[in-house]
Amino acid sequence: MCSLEKQGNIFILTLTGDNEHRLNPTLLDSITATLHRIRSETTAPSALITTAHGKFFSNGYDLAWGQSDPDRNILMSKKLRLLIETLISFPMPTIAAVTGHASAAGFILAQAHDYVMMRKDRGYLYMSEMDIKLVIPNWFVKVLKCKIGNPSVLRDVVLRCDKVTADVAVAKGIIYSAHDSAEETVKAAVGLGEELAMRNWDGHVYTCNRKVLFADVLGALDFDETVEDVVKANVVSSRL
Protein backbone atom coordinates (compact mmCIF):
# COMPACT_ATOMS: atom_id res chain seq x y z
CA MET A 1 0.00 0.00 0.00
CA CYS A 2 1.07 3.62 0.16
CA SER A 3 0.96 6.61 2.48
CA LEU A 4 0.75 10.34 1.84
CA GLU A 5 2.51 13.18 3.64
CA LYS A 6 2.44 16.89 2.89
CA GLN A 7 5.35 19.24 3.57
CA GLY A 8 4.33 22.75 2.64
CA ASN A 9 3.45 22.53 -1.05
CA ILE A 10 5.18 19.16 -1.47
CA PHE A 11 3.22 15.89 -1.52
CA ILE A 12 5.25 12.78 -0.63
CA LEU A 13 3.68 9.49 -1.70
CA THR A 14 5.49 6.53 -0.12
CA LEU A 15 5.16 2.87 -1.00
CA THR A 16 5.05 1.41 2.49
CA GLY A 17 6.47 -1.74 4.08
CA ASP A 18 9.73 -3.61 3.48
CA ASN A 19 8.60 -5.91 0.67
CA GLU A 20 9.34 -5.62 -3.05
CA HIS A 21 6.39 -3.30 -3.81
CA ARG A 22 5.27 -5.59 -6.61
CA LEU A 23 2.74 -3.85 -8.85
CA ASN A 24 -0.43 -5.88 -8.34
CA PRO A 25 -3.93 -4.39 -8.70
CA THR A 26 -4.19 -3.57 -4.98
CA LEU A 27 -1.02 -1.45 -4.94
CA LEU A 28 -1.72 0.12 -8.34
CA ASP A 29 -5.24 1.11 -7.24
CA SER A 30 -3.84 2.56 -4.01
CA ILE A 31 -1.29 4.73 -5.85
CA THR A 32 -3.81 5.92 -8.43
CA ALA A 33 -6.40 6.75 -5.75
CA THR A 34 -3.77 8.73 -3.81
CA LEU A 35 -2.91 10.72 -6.94
CA HIS A 36 -6.58 11.58 -7.42
CA ARG A 37 -6.74 12.65 -3.77
CA ILE A 38 -3.72 14.94 -4.23
CA ARG A 39 -5.26 16.43 -7.34
CA SER A 40 -8.50 17.18 -5.50
CA GLU A 41 -6.68 18.78 -2.54
CA THR A 42 -4.25 20.96 -4.51
CA THR A 43 -4.99 24.68 -4.30
CA ALA A 44 -1.52 26.15 -4.96
CA PRO A 45 1.50 25.32 -7.13
CA SER A 46 2.86 22.05 -5.78
CA ALA A 47 5.11 19.10 -6.59
CA LEU A 48 4.79 15.33 -6.12
CA ILE A 49 7.51 13.02 -4.80
CA THR A 50 7.09 9.25 -5.08
CA THR A 51 9.40 7.10 -2.96
CA ALA A 52 9.40 3.79 -1.09
CA HIS A 53 10.40 2.06 2.12
CA GLY A 54 12.84 -0.82 2.20
CA LYS A 55 15.24 -2.44 -0.25
CA PHE A 56 13.06 -1.90 -3.33
CA PHE A 57 11.48 1.08 -5.03
CA SER A 58 9.48 -1.50 -7.00
CA ASN A 59 10.44 -4.91 -8.34
CA GLY A 60 7.92 -4.70 -11.17
CA TYR A 61 4.75 -6.62 -11.85
CA ASP A 62 3.54 -9.19 -9.32
CA LEU A 63 4.32 -12.09 -11.66
CA ALA A 64 3.57 -14.73 -9.02
CA TRP A 65 0.05 -13.32 -8.63
CA GLY A 66 -0.45 -13.12 -12.38
CA GLN A 67 0.83 -16.53 -13.43
CA SER A 68 -2.22 -18.47 -12.22
CA ASP A 69 -4.62 -16.75 -14.64
CA PRO A 70 -3.86 -14.90 -17.91
CA ASP A 71 -6.67 -12.44 -17.16
CA ARG A 72 -4.72 -11.28 -14.12
CA ASN A 73 -1.86 -10.15 -16.36
CA ILE A 74 -4.30 -8.15 -18.46
CA LEU A 75 -5.68 -6.54 -15.30
CA MET A 76 -2.22 -5.58 -14.02
CA SER A 77 -1.33 -4.11 -17.39
CA LYS A 78 -4.52 -2.06 -17.59
CA LYS A 79 -4.07 -0.67 -14.11
CA LEU A 80 -0.41 0.24 -14.64
CA ARG A 81 -1.27 1.95 -17.93
CA LEU A 82 -3.99 3.92 -16.12
CA LEU A 83 -1.48 4.94 -13.45
CA ILE A 84 1.08 6.05 -16.03
CA GLU A 85 -1.58 8.05 -17.87
CA THR A 86 -2.54 9.67 -14.54
CA LEU A 87 1.09 10.65 -13.90
CA ILE A 88 1.51 12.08 -17.39
CA SER A 89 -1.69 14.10 -16.88
CA PHE A 90 -0.74 15.23 -13.36
CA PRO A 91 -0.94 19.04 -12.97
CA MET A 92 2.38 19.55 -11.18
CA PRO A 93 6.04 18.51 -11.44
CA THR A 94 6.70 14.91 -10.40
CA ILE A 95 9.87 13.44 -8.88
CA ALA A 96 10.73 9.79 -8.24
CA ALA A 97 13.07 9.42 -5.25
CA VAL A 98 14.40 5.93 -5.95
CA THR A 99 15.74 4.57 -2.67
CA GLY A 100 16.12 0.94 -3.76
CA HIS A 101 16.00 -1.37 -6.76
CA ALA A 102 13.63 -0.37 -9.58
CA SER A 103 13.11 -3.25 -11.97
CA ALA A 104 11.03 -3.75 -15.14
CA ALA A 105 7.60 -2.17 -14.56
CA GLY A 106 9.05 -0.55 -11.43
CA PHE A 107 11.72 1.12 -13.59
CA ILE A 108 8.96 2.32 -15.93
CA LEU A 109 6.99 3.72 -12.97
CA ALA A 110 10.03 5.75 -11.91
CA GLN A 111 10.74 6.95 -15.45
CA ALA A 112 7.15 8.17 -15.87
CA HIS A 113 8.05 10.98 -13.44
CA ASP A 114 9.59 14.22 -14.67
CA TYR A 115 12.74 13.77 -12.58
CA VAL A 116 14.38 10.63 -11.16
CA MET A 117 16.74 10.96 -8.20
CA MET A 118 18.50 7.91 -6.79
CA ARG A 119 20.61 6.79 -3.85
CA LYS A 120 24.22 5.79 -4.52
CA ASP A 121 24.77 3.26 -1.76
CA ARG A 122 22.10 0.73 -2.70
CA GLY A 123 19.90 -0.22 -5.62
CA TYR A 124 19.98 -0.32 -9.38
CA LEU A 125 17.75 0.26 -12.38
CA TYR A 126 17.08 -2.93 -14.33
CA MET A 127 14.91 -3.87 -17.28
CA SER A 128 14.81 -7.62 -16.64
CA GLU A 129 12.66 -8.82 -19.55
CA MET A 130 15.46 -10.50 -21.55
CA ASP A 131 16.75 -12.27 -18.45
CA ILE A 132 13.33 -13.64 -17.47
CA LYS A 133 12.25 -14.47 -21.04
CA LEU A 134 9.48 -11.91 -21.45
CA VAL A 135 8.78 -9.71 -24.47
CA ILE A 136 8.94 -6.07 -23.47
CA PRO A 137 5.74 -4.09 -24.19
CA ASN A 138 5.91 -1.46 -26.90
CA TRP A 139 4.70 1.23 -24.53
CA PHE A 140 7.49 0.42 -22.03
CA VAL A 141 10.04 1.17 -24.75
CA LYS A 142 8.25 4.39 -25.68
CA VAL A 143 8.55 5.56 -22.04
CA LEU A 144 12.25 4.74 -22.06
CA LYS A 145 12.78 6.55 -25.38
CA CYS A 146 11.22 9.68 -23.87
CA LYS A 147 13.76 9.61 -21.02
CA ILE A 148 16.93 8.06 -22.50
CA GLY A 149 18.30 10.07 -25.40
CA ASN A 150 21.36 7.97 -26.24
CA PRO A 151 20.46 4.99 -28.50
CA SER A 152 23.42 2.95 -27.23
CA VAL A 153 22.36 3.43 -23.63
CA LEU A 154 18.79 2.48 -24.52
CA ARG A 155 20.07 -0.65 -26.28
CA ASP A 156 22.07 -1.72 -23.25
CA VAL A 157 19.15 -1.11 -20.90
CA VAL A 158 16.71 -3.16 -23.01
CA LEU A 159 18.85 -5.76 -24.79
CA ARG A 160 21.76 -6.28 -22.35
CA CYS A 161 19.67 -5.93 -19.18
CA ASP A 162 22.34 -3.74 -17.61
CA LYS A 163 21.87 -3.24 -13.88
CA VAL A 164 22.55 0.47 -13.66
CA THR A 165 23.69 2.04 -10.40
CA ALA A 166 23.01 5.66 -9.54
CA ASP A 167 26.37 7.17 -10.51
CA VAL A 168 26.36 5.32 -13.83
CA ALA A 169 22.73 6.32 -14.45
CA VAL A 170 23.65 10.00 -14.01
CA ALA A 171 26.64 9.66 -16.33
CA LYS A 172 24.48 8.00 -18.99
CA GLY A 173 21.70 10.55 -18.71
CA ILE A 174 19.12 8.07 -17.38
CA ILE A 175 18.40 9.95 -14.14
CA TYR A 176 18.63 13.50 -12.86
CA SER A 177 20.90 13.10 -9.81
CA ALA A 178 22.49 10.65 -7.32
CA HIS A 179 22.75 10.98 -3.54
CA ASP A 180 24.57 9.34 -0.66
CA SER A 181 21.64 7.63 1.12
CA ALA A 182 17.89 7.11 1.06
CA GLU A 183 17.43 10.03 3.42
CA GLU A 184 19.60 12.33 1.31
CA THR A 185 17.73 11.29 -1.83
CA VAL A 186 14.35 12.21 -0.37
CA LYS A 187 15.79 15.42 1.10
CA ALA A 188 17.15 16.41 -2.31
CA ALA A 189 13.81 15.55 -3.92
CA VAL A 190 12.01 17.83 -1.46
CA GLY A 191 14.48 20.62 -2.23
CA LEU A 192 13.91 20.23 -5.96
CA GLY A 193 10.15 20.03 -5.44
CA GLU A 194 10.17 23.28 -3.47
CA GLU A 195 12.26 24.96 -6.16
CA LEU A 196 9.87 23.85 -8.89
CA ALA A 197 6.74 24.79 -6.90
CA MET A 198 8.15 28.28 -6.42
CA ARG A 199 8.12 28.77 -10.19
CA ASN A 200 4.35 29.15 -9.79
CA TRP A 201 3.59 27.39 -13.07
CA ASP A 202 0.03 26.91 -14.25
CA GLY A 203 -0.87 23.25 -13.66
CA HIS A 204 -2.98 22.94 -16.79
CA VAL A 205 -0.23 24.35 -18.99
CA TYR A 206 2.35 22.10 -17.31
CA THR A 207 0.18 19.05 -18.03
CA CYS A 208 -0.36 20.03 -21.66
CA ASN A 209 3.36 20.51 -22.23
CA ARG A 210 4.20 17.17 -20.58
CA LYS A 211 1.63 15.46 -22.80
CA VAL A 212 3.49 16.79 -25.82
CA LEU A 213 6.71 15.20 -24.54
CA PHE A 214 4.92 11.91 -23.84
CA ALA A 215 2.69 11.96 -26.94
CA ASP A 216 4.09 8.66 -28.26
CA VAL A 217 3.48 7.00 -24.89
CA LEU A 218 -0.08 8.29 -24.62
CA GLY A 219 -0.77 6.99 -28.11
CA ALA A 220 0.30 3.49 -27.07
CA LEU A 221 -1.43 3.21 -23.69
CA ASP A 222 -4.80 1.98 -24.96
CA PHE A 223 -3.42 -1.44 -25.77
CA ASP A 224 -0.66 -3.65 -24.39
CA GLU A 225 0.07 -5.89 -27.35
CA THR A 226 2.46 -8.14 -25.42
CA VAL A 227 0.00 -9.11 -22.69
CA GLU A 228 -2.91 -9.49 -25.10
CA ASP A 229 -0.91 -11.62 -27.53
CA VAL A 230 0.35 -13.93 -24.79
CA VAL A 231 -3.17 -14.45 -23.50
CA LYS A 232 -4.47 -15.15 -27.03
CA ALA A 233 -1.66 -17.67 -27.59
CA ASN A 234 -2.50 -19.44 -24.35
CA VAL A 235 -6.17 -19.66 -25.35
CA VAL A 236 -5.28 -21.12 -28.75
CA SER A 237 -2.91 -23.65 -27.17
CA SER A 238 -5.59 -24.80 -24.73
CA ARG A 239 -7.92 -25.56 -27.63
CA LEU A 240 -5.43 -27.72 -29.53
Key attributes of the depicted protein:
2-enoyl-CoA Hydratase, Chain A, domain 1, three-stranded parallel β-sheet, delta(3)-delta(2)-enoyl-CoA isomerase activity, six-stranded mixed β-sheet, 240 residues, disordered C terminus, alpha/beta, 11 helices
What does this molecule look like?
It catalyses: a (3Z)-enoyl-CoA = a 4-saturated (2E)-enoyl-CoA; a (3E)-enoyl-CoA = a 4-saturated (2E)-enoyl-CoA. Its EC number is 5.3.3.8. This is Delta(3)-Delta(2)-enoyl-CoA isomerase. Pathway: Lipid metabolism; fatty acid beta-oxidation. GO terms for molecular function: delta(3)-delta(2)-enoyl-CoA isomerase activity. With 240 residues, this protein is of the alpha/beta class. It has one domain: Alpha-Beta Complex (2-enoyl-CoA Hydratase, Chain A, domain 1). It is 50% helix and 16% strand. The protein contains 11 helices and 9 strands. The strands form 2 sheets. It has a 6-stranded mixed beta sheet, with helices on both faces. Strands 4-6-8 form a 3-stranded parallel beta sheet. Helix 1 (25-41) runs parallel beside helix 3 (70-88) and helix 3 packs antiparallel against helix 11 (225-239). Residues 233-240 have low confidence and may be disordered.
